[in-house]
């Protein structure tokens, strides 16, 4: 008779606590870690992990699978990268609560803010809900390849309560604020992990309308925060622009919200090349606020923040070119064949390139000094000498000509990488400083979003491959990185039952061959509802991924098991 459901034997255990690695077995029963160490008892399933790392499942606290989770059981690409729990409903956008009259507006908002095709959302969303509790119930009826958790989004709340006044960015009156606060608290009591909001000019609907939460006043945000705090559970999440003009106001608002709630809060942080040292003020602010007894974290990216450019992507350097626009609706192979015609090439290049400012990243489409050909494997910290502008100058061509040729390569599948944030002076040193700070956590992968422009659900793999193993200078310790991507991210959103491989914790884990870990170049698939396109990105080196004690992927391929479930806040073990 077997003693356990699963035993992972002889691996190098990095348990998520930050403690030094050691050789150990991990025994699992009923989805819980039962023993760690030398385990004599047998398992119904056994995994030989000799020579491999055994680490907790990764927790990605910043995704946008809000739509995909209603029609798909496999939340790829995240589940290909060791992620066993995702948190969605970030940046104030989502699909609940929603009255029938508001559905189109929420779809347009998600399409514009997160670059998820509106036709796919319209086809895929069942709209079997009105309130947030109903939405959670729909998710609870489905099985997944990882666990999911949701936050209640501010934009949907505002539209639900204020209607057209929300879209017009009117200040909420006292009764509207009270209703939003009550709805947010109800959502948290029903199982939402928390509340998210956006105050960035980058977040616009597909029609160019600013996100409804942009102009919300401090009275509104602190009232919602206080109502959530009164439930005794829940977290807060915010994204803002961090400009020189707004940073002091942002600091004051964030501290007012976290103080009103008495609950954990996080905000998004990156390095803006226009003011490359400003992020350090935010790091100092983090230290000060935590010293005052609040629980505040910054979510930071594992690499440059930018976009992928290609003929089958949302953007390419010729997006705004009127001649290219006449070809834009053709299948990619046909488009590339037409573009290879010398007369077409001459006509397109004669019109030149320029920005497409209504799309995230579109303002940088003529910044050839920041564009790099994306190979396989992709290089996310490229040498500036390999930029399109530098390569073109070295060969006597214009940057437009070289970019054109790269896009046509591989029958139109060539891609360019354009990091417009975090990649300052050709380096990710600023990213390292953010990752290493005491009060930051890895985040901002946007898994499930920006499906035609980025594919950052692979951030956990970048942390291990680039920051632990490959970077020549400034590598980060393995134990530190694993702890940050598992236990620290779990704690930041109140998921206190996971992120550690210790007795009594949820049995989510990865077995990883670190020397062979390798990212592949992202690729486009047309597998969303209505044939919508999206980026996916595979990796090698994940030998096994386990959710609740059940192997979900072996060698990167699905086992057929779907043990993942909706996680409701408030039902977890005490920390």
What are the low-pLDDT stretches, counting only 5+ consecutive residues below 50? none
Number of helical regions: 17
Rg (CA only): 23 Å
Question: What is the rounded distance between the termini?
Answer: 34 Å
Per the principal axes of the C-alpha atoms, what is the gross shape? globular
Largest sheet: 9 strands, mixed
Structural class: alpha/beta
What is the strand tally? 25
Q: What do the pLDDT scores average to?
A: 96
List its salient traits.
17 helices; Urease, subunit C, domain 1; alpha/beta; six-stranded parallel sheet; 575 residues; nine-stranded mixed sheet
Task: Tell me what you see in this structure.
The protein has 575 residues and is an alpha/beta fold. The strands form six sheets. Strands 1, 2, 3, 4, 5, 18, 23, 24 and 25 form a nine-stranded mixed sheet that branches. The chain has a six-stranded parallel sheet with strand order 9-10-11-12-13-17. The mean pLDDT is 96.
Mind sketching the topology for me?
Elements: E1 4-13, E2 22-29, E3 32-37, E4 43-48, E5 53-56, E6 58-60, E7 83-88, H1 103-114, H2 118-124, H3 132-140, E8 147-150, E9 152-153, H4 154-162, H5 164-167, H6 174-190, E10 194-199, H7 218-230, E11 235-240, H8 247-261, E12 265-269, H9 278-291, E13 296-300, E14 305-309, H10 322-325, H11 332-339, H12 342-351, E15 372-373, H13 388-395, H14 399-412, E16 416-421, H15 429-436, E17 440-442, H16 459-470, H17 478-492, E18 509-512, E19 518-519, E20 523-525, E21 534-536, E22 539-540, E23 542-547, E24 550-554, E25 557-558
Helix pairs in contact: 4-6, 6-7, 7-8, 11-14, 13-14, 16-17
Pfam families: Amidohydro_3
InterPro entries: Amidohydro_3, Metal-dep_hydrolase_composite, Metal_Hydrolase, Metallo-dep_Hydrolases_sf
GO molecular function: hydrolase activity, acting on carbon-nitrogen (but not peptide) bonds, in cyclic amides
């Amino acid at each position: 008779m077997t003693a356990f459901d699963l035993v992972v034997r002889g691996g190098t255990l990095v348990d998520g606590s930050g403690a030094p690695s050691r050789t150990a077995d991990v025994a699992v029963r009923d989805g819980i870690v039962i023993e760690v160490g030398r385990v004599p008892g047998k398992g119904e399933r056994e995994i030989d992990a000799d020579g491999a790392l055994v680490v907790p499942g990764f927790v990605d606290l910043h995704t946008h699978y809000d739509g995909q989770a209603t029609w798909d059981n496999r939340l790829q690409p995240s589940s290909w990268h060791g992620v066993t729990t995702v948190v969605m409903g970030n940046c104030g956008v989502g699909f609940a609560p929603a009255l029938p009259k508001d559905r189109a507006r929420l779809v347009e908002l998600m399409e514009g803010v997160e670059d998820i095709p509106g036709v796919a959302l319209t086809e895929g969303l069942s709209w079997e809900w009105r309130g947030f509790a109903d939405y959670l119930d729909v998710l609870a009826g489905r099985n997944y390849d990882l666990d999911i958790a949701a936050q209640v989004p501010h934009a949907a709340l505002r539209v639900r309560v204020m209607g057209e006044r929300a879209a017009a960015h009117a200040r909420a009156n006292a009764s509207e604020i009270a209703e939003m606060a009550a709805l947010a608290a109800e959502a948290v009591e029903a199982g939402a992990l928390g509340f998210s909001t956006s105050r960035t000019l980058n977040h616009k609907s597909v029609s160019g309308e600013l996100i409804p939460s942009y102009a919300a006043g401090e009275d509104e945000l602190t009232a919602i925060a206080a109502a959530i705090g009164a439930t005794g559970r829940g977290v807060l999440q915010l994204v803002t622009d961090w400009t020189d003009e707004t940073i002091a106001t942002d600091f004051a608002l964030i501290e007012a919200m976290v103080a009103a709630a008495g609950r954990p809060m996080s905000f998004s942080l990156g390095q803006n090349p226009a003011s490359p040292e400003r992020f350090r003020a935010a790091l100092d602010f983090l230290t000060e606020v935590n010293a005052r007894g609040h629980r505040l974290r910054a979510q930071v990216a594992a690499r440059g923040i930018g976009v992928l450019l290609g003929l089958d992507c949302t953007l390419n350097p010729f997006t705004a070119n009127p001649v290219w626009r006449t070809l834009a609706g053709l299948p990619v192979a046909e488009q590339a064949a037409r573009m290879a015609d010398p007369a077409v090439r001459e006509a397109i290049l004669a019109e030149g390139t320029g920005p497409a400012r209504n799309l995230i990243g579109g303002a940088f489409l003529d910044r050839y000094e920041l564009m790099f050909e994306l190979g396989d494997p992709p290089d996310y910290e490229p040498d500036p000498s390999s930029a399109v502008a530098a390569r073109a100058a070295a060969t006597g061509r214009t940057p437009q000509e070289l970019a054109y040729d790269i896009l046509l390569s591989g029958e139109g599948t060539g891609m360019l990488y354009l990091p417009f944030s975090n990649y300052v002076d050709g380096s990710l040193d600023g990213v390292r400083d953010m990752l290493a700070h005491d009060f930051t956590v890895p985040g901002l992968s946007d898994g499930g979003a920006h499906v035609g422009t980025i594919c950052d659900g692979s951030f956990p793999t970048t942390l291990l491959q680039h920051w632990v193993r490959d970077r020549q200078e400034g590598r980060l310790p393995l134990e530190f990185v694993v702890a940050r991507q598992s236990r620290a991210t779990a704690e930041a959103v109140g998921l206190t039952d996971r992120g550690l491989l210790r007795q009594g914790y949820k049995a989510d884990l990865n077995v990883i061959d670190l020397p062979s870990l390798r990212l592949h170049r992202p690729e486009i698939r047309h597998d969303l509802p209505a044939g919508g396109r999206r980026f996916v990105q595979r990796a090698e080196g994940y030998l096994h991924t386990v959710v609740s004690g059940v192997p979900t992927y072996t060698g990167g391929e699905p086992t057929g098991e779907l043990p993942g479930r909706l996680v409701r806040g408030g039902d977890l073990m005490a920390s």
